[in-house]
Amino acid sequence: MKLLPLALLLTGCANSEVFHGDLAFTQEERAAIETGATVASECWGEPRIEIVWDGQINGEGNRIVKAVPTIPFANGQYWNYKHRDIIWIHPRLFISGVYMVFAHEVGHYYGHGHHAGPGFLGDRDMYECSAEDRALYNQGQ
Ligand SMILES: [Zn+2]
User: Fold this and answer.
1) pLDDT per residue as tens digits for the range 68-83
2) Residue 35 belongs to what H/E stretch?
3) Left, alpha or beta for 92 (phi > 0: left; psi -120 to 50: alpha)?
4) How far apart are the CA of 42 and the centre of ligand 1, in A?
5) Which CATH superfamily is domain 16-139 in?
6) What is the Å distance from ligand 1's center to 106 Cα?
7) Is 17 helix (H, G, I), strand (E, B) or coil?
8) pTM higher than 0.90, yes or no?
């Protein structure tokens, strides 16, 4: 009976993916994004994404870009396009915003939607993983 969770865990680890990072991000912004990746992974119990800061954001593969999202007025955006995962971070965010928005978008990458409470995917107090965020994981959404 204990083999099933282990099998799921191993499957999850195998899905850890690499994202190419935009060199337009400052060192401070990259650190905020790396922290956001770690915290989002811990929040939702998913494999932490790997980020390679090589600026390869125009070819194949997943990417994190410092650019204005295509959705009007959005601070960030997640989009899966032709099996590529793309996360936009608006260029005019403060460091705390880069961290918060990145964790939010990684939540979408993990397959979660928004909720009305506090937390990364909530409508308010979006700077930390909340019970409401964790409930998304528990519900398997
Ligand atoms: Zn969102």
Assistant:
1) 999 999 999 999 988 8
2) helix 27-44
3) alpha
4) 18
5) Collagenase (Catalytic Domain) (3.40.390.10)
6) 9
7) coil
8) no
